[in-house]
Amino acid sequence: MSRFILRRLLQSAVVLLGVTLVVFLLLQLVPGDPVRVALGTRFDPQTYEALRSRAGLDRPLLTQYLSYVGNALTGDLGVSFRSGQPVTTIVLERLPATLSLALTAVLIAVLIALPLGVLAAVRNGSALDHAARVFSQFGVSVPDFWMGIMGILLFAGVLGWLPPSGYVALTDDPAGWLSHVLLPAATIGLVTASILTRFIRSSVLEVLSADHVRTAEAKGLRGRVVVLRHVLRNALIPVVTVVAVQLASLLGGVIVVEVLFAWPGIGRLTYDAVQARDYPVLQGAVLLVAALFLVMNLLVDILYARLDPRIRVR
Amino acid sequence: MSADSRTRRALSALRHDPPAVAGAAVLLLLVVVGVAGQWLAPAGVNDVDVDQMLHPPSWAHPFGTDELGRDVLSRVLVAARVSLQVGVVSVGIALLVGATIGLIAGYYQGWVDNVLMRGMDVLFAFPVLLLAVAIVAVLGPGLLTAMIAIGVVYTPIFARVTRAGVLSVREQVFVRAAVSIGASDLRIIRRHVLPNIAAPLIVQTSLSLAFAILSEAALSFLGLGVQPPAPAWGRMLFDGRGFVTEAWWLGFFPGAAIFLTVLAFNLVGDALRDVLDPRQLTLGEARRSTA
Amino acid sequence: MSNFGSRLAGATLAVVLVAAGGCSAGKGVDVDGGGATGGAGGVLTAAIGGEPDQLDPHKTSAYYSFQVLENVYDTLVEPDENLEMKPALATEWKTSDDQLTWTFTLREGVKFSDGSPLTSQDVKYSFDRIVGEKLNNAYRFASVKSVAAPDPKTVVVTLSAPTPNLLANLGGFKGVAIVQKANIESGAVKTKPVGSGPFAVSAYTSGDSVKLVRNDNYWGDKPKLDGVTFTFVKDPTVALQNLRGGEVQWTDNLPPQQVPSLKDGGDLEVQTTPSSDYWYLTLNQARKPYSDVNVRRAVAFALDPAAITKAAKFGLATTNQTAIPKGSAWYYEYAPYRHDPAQAKQLLGQAGVTGLTMELMVTSEYPETVSAAQVIAAQLKEVGITVRIRTLDFAQWLDEQGKGNFDAFMLGWLGNIDPDEFYYAQHHSGGTFNFQKYRNPAVDKLLDQARTETDQAARKQAYDQVAKQVVDDASYIYLYNPDVVQGWSKKVTGYQARTDRAIRFRDVALAK
Q1: Which among B46, B51, B223 is the nearest to C364, CB-wise?
Q2: pLDDT digits 0-9 by tens, C21-42
Q3: How many domains does chain B have?
């Protein structure tokens, strides 16, 4: 067990190092001088020099990379080309918004997908099963921004039930937060739910066909009890991991939905940084997201290995 | 079973799968529109007429007109080509690069495998759209950079699928036999490995086309894809965003076009998977929601 | 309109005096409060279209920053609603006979929002900082030799040449605000600037909002509002919905196509005022065939500015064939072009040009250029010119502009009022923004003379001649002056939309 964890840890560390390299190289790939490009019309020689030396662009590449990694380890991701603020502060400020959106979206997704997926599997081939399939096909194919726009049109425009966009912090005004989070969270939640429904359905189907379920049925336990007690417990192990993977990628900020709904999370930050050519902020956001994604996946793997010892053999 | 007969069987199975038939029909239509969109379109894509701006759907303009008085139907039709082009080229890049990497990694194994696949892991550590946006941010927005960015993003999936396939084939008796009689690597790969990994790659390609088109639409929606005046579905949504409440047709039709296209690719892809490679893990799907 | 920046709009938001050339003394304003009680007015929420890049008034060039800073900082003098320079921190000023020494007297008892006094040392520090660190607005001090603070209430500005528009240079907008040394040196200014204006920044949440509270140390009438919150709402449809829903009481980010119906609607107050911005098309005179004035004039005759304006601004603009808007004291009525494809073809024929393909460079940074370009392309097609639209990222756009790598481009200038700012840099052969490479010795001479001309009438005459020549030569093909469009709730009283886009909430009250 601990050997498995150790190996995964090591692997993740190597990948994380690779991630820093990619993120670092982003800046090098900018055609021309990134500081000059970023300053654009706001160019003034002093700011230019300050940012350039702060970004260390006058030093050899390897030195730059090593100090980038070194600084990143101490939590220093450089300063924004635009505002001069530390990137770490800027990125962390956006985390709560993204976190609250991602968690709400996953909650909505699970609330839809769990009953739908289980019922579809239990009533395999029924009308409900078909409906679930249509739903999940719809969800993986629909562009989320389009669904978001249609949602705004309907719920904010025609019906006037919800605000079209904007953000209120949960800590400031829970009711206001809820009314603002519903549309974007539902937009993401529906897409996520469609993916989850598929996984849950096939996972439950697999367990249903397993030996111990058949045994339980043979023992005379009635259908519903079998489903609840035996099937769900076993089927949910892989489902938990899929939910966690979904959450991990949502934490990375859902760029399009955050932009559409003016939700000030990591995704919007990334988008704004791109617009403003604020490369350090872009780097910082991308690095944080990738690191979060890695850590979440690592946790999922470890969790999975605990729940299902067979995994370690892989 | 030879790869050839499997393909034939797959095609015949598809014929009896109504959703797949529907998907294939839509795809066929798309290809026709993609090739002949310019001639099918009732008006020029850049026929600006400010006196006709924001007219709702009518007989003259079945999809209405946009904020510059252009015919939305014509723009939707012509934009099909952009979507297909981005889909095909970017998935082509991903397939070519990814499969090559996966092939080399799986076939030679050892440290080559390790280095290549850790590299793929690194790319895999970024949410799809985030990485694409970052690449476009660096290279500058446009059709070409969008294709490159999406290609890069989907490369690791192909590398993994290929490698897994190669690994399973490599240990089979006929491959070991071929190695032992001294057949060259290239010959073994061509004769034995490639035919056996074709199925998962075909499935992955068709599903990736759906995701790639969706990614392009998302990039365009962020204003980072095809630049105006060239029409692109995502871009039309981006441009129409400010008018959506008064002019629903600006948001509805391009979005519906994206949806139908992606749906068609998904339906065909799913059907192909059911027939060719039922157990394949759809890595793409698990990552889909990051768009 | 973020990023419009120093290079382009050297005078972003600058306001230069209209009729104050020979002015020697300003009148003090009545500061006894006039019975205004202030306070208890609630907090006004204003939706602006984007986020400030930073709040250092000397370093930012983003309009979003100045929307906030207008209410936080003071300048030595400031433009009133007619853009005439009025006393602000300085109550009066004297000019020496040779026009080279200006002596300003500061207002009594002015304090920064943190309670520390504002003295002539702060004025000197502010101006020296802009010049010494070569910040965005250093060019406004081009003729300033030195700034001295002989006593706490007196500032002496010494010039190297007579500068008729000095007041506008020193007080035209908040980019030349008086800052506090400690606030600058600690670096806190970027997010928590300390000024002497009616409000003070209390919180800045990146991606969301900037919150201001009433500055109780303010020297003028006590603001009626308890505070102002600026929220960043990129999408105009959303801003409008927020305004209607009551979450927001003021915005300048309204969907342009809805403005006419909003003005008639009656549930909101919507004002449109012509601005001093202008948008133009220019052709690269270093390239053939655009070096031929007939070709440039042909393009001017081929265009239909009304249609361009409709596409770019939904009619929220006034077409104008010169740069300076109607309503300015410097306006010169001259409109030799009209939409006339036949005339255009004839001119092209004279120039011997057929089958011309023109690359038109626009930027997605300013979507109106992209929209307008498509209309321009359609119009030029009628006279046989094929337009290829190049839509570039702004950074790349600027690069190409700098290198002269273009046939034509479209862009705008924001907020210039003094004619020197309208014409010198753009059309003088040595002008820093003369990317179209216009060269006319007569224009050069006129521009140089007018620069230091202190006689108002003579100055106006010189600029009229410049305007006529520039238009005749089609150095710029001027398209339109956009309107300032702002809307607010009926609960808001005491607010006026201004030509210079300065947003002042100090006299505003909010009904419950």
Answers
A1: B223
A2: 333 333 333 333 333 444 457 9
A3: 1
